[in-house]
């Protein structure tokens, strides 16, 4: 793209914005990691070990696994940002870590789509669900979702390479013409703030080309990610919940189903709020004319949209606790049992009877 340079004051201001943005993003990543790992671990523990295996627990267990995998990658990117975008982990992790991010993103959105369809069928076709909605069947669907997400992340692993410029190693795609990179992007603010070194939300460009064109492979990957990872899934989810609202208004649903539906709607809404800026920024970089006019704003908002997307990985456990009453009860019950076992060598028969009665009551309901 053409050279875009400013005076020294604008360069210092832009560099200051980027430094502040990096600090904010590192803080957000750290908070997400601190909350996301134990939060999702608790979900996996309760849904996988403490609750009776049901369709709902299978759905949310798989969501928690995807969120945990995403959170585990955060320390790598925190160090990456702290080192001013230098990639110290080598070529293999350059392929693996970004692939895991895209893998978990697609797994999460495909799971949310499947959950939405499942809830819609439960309302619209209750007889069919009574005969076919089984844990084994849902587990097979989840396995298929993980395989589909793996297929969508393969281009990331294939094209990823490390490149070294002036002693600084960067991790990005080699698409044949330009280098294309995933979030977090490789954006450096040196003594000279030059927008020509930054070629998009997911791009760092060939500054020797001197044009505004976007390499075809990069554009296809970015657009495919936005369409199949956000636009199409959210459209399907919107239709499903519109049908559910229409049907439940005419026919009152059971209270426990309404509670479960409320939890799922909150999870879907959180996904939309967290991931919409990420895909909007990525899509704007694909349009050369918009990318040129909005370059400064896109650069400054790029990391923030990424941090917001990562935040979705720690929000779901909080939603389960504050929205899902049954899940909250089971968390309290599990913590209570651990404390009783830690503080007492033997439980009295009355305590055992009380715990057993509480467990049977809780296991009779779904999330």
From TrEMBL:
Pfam families recorded: 7tm_1
Identify the GO cellular component terms for this protein. plasma membrane
Q: Name one GO molecular function term.
A: complement component C3a receptor activity
Membrane topology for this entry? Multi-pass membrane protein
Annotated GO biological process: chemotaxis; inflammatory response; phospholipase C-activating G protein-coupled receptor signaling pathway; positive regulation of cytosolic calcium ion concentration
Please name the InterPro entries in this protein's record.
Answer: Anphylx_rcpt_C3a/C5a1-2 (IPR002234), Formyl_rcpt-rel (IPR000826), GPCR_Rhodpsn (IPR000276), GPCR_Rhodpsn_7TM (IPR017452)
Carries keyword Transmembrane?
yes
Write down the superkingdom of origin.
Answer: Eukaryota
Q: Where are the transmembrane segments?
A: 26-47, 59-83, 89-117, 137-159, 226-248, 260-278, 298-323
Q: Where in the cell is it found?
A: Cell membrane
Where the record annotates domain G-protein coupled receptors family 1 profile, the positions are 39-320
Mind listing the UniProt keywords for this protein, alphabetically?
Answer: Cell membrane, Disulfide bond, G-protein coupled receptor, Membrane, Phosphoprotein, Receptor, Transducer, Transmembrane, Transmembrane helix
User: Can you tell me which family this protein belongs to?
Assistant: Belongs to the chemokine-like receptor (CMKLR) family.
Per its record, how is this protein called by name?
C3AR protein
> What is the scientific name of the source organism?
Loxia curvirostra (Red crossbill)
């Amino acid at each position: 793209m053409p050279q875009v340079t400013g005076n020294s004051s604008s360069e210092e201001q832009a560099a200051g914005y980027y430094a502040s943005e990096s600090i904010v993003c590192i803080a957000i990543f750290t908070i997400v990691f601190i909350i996301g790992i134990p939060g999702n671990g608790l979900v996996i523990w309760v849904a996988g070990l403490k609750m009776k295996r049901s369709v709902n627990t299978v759905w949310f267990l798989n969501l928690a696994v995807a969120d945990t995998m995403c959170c585990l990658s955060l320390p790598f990117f925190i160090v990456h940002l702290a080192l001013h975008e230098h990639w110290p982990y080598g070529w293999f992790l350059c392929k693996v870590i970004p692939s895991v991010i895209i893998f978990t993103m697609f797994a999460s959105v495909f799971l949310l789509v499947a959950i939405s369809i499942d809830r819609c069928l439960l309302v619209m076709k209750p007889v069919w669900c009574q005969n076919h909605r089984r844990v084994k069947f849902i587990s097979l669907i989840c396995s298929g979702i993980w395989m589909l997400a793996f297929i969508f992340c393969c281009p990331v692993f294939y094209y990823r390479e490390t490149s070294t410029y002036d002693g600084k190693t960067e991790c990005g795609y080699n698409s044949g013409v330009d280098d294309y990179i995933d979030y977090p992007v490789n954006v450096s603010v040196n003594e000279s703030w030059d927008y020509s070194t930054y070629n998009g939300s997911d791009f760092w460009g060939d500054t020797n080309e001197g044009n505004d064109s976007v390499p075809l492979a990069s554009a296809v990957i970015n657009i495919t990610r936005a369409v199949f990872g956000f636009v199409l899934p959210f459209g399907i989810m919107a239709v499903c919940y519109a049908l559910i609202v229409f049907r439940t208004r005419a026919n009152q649903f059971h209270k426990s189903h309404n509670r479960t539906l409320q939890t799922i709607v909150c999870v879907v809404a959180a996904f939309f709020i967290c991931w919409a800026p990420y895909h909007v920024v990525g899509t704007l970089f694909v349009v050369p004319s918009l990318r040129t006019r909005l370059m400064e704003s896109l650069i400054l908002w790029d990391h923030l949209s990424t941090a917001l997307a990562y935040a979705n990985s720690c929000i779901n456990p909080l939603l389960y606790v504050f929205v899902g009453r049954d899940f909250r009860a089971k968390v309290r019950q599990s913590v209570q049992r651990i404390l009783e076992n830690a503080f007492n060598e033997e439980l009295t028969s009355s305590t055992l009877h009380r715990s057993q009665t509480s467990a049977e009551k809780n296991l009779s309901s779904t999330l």
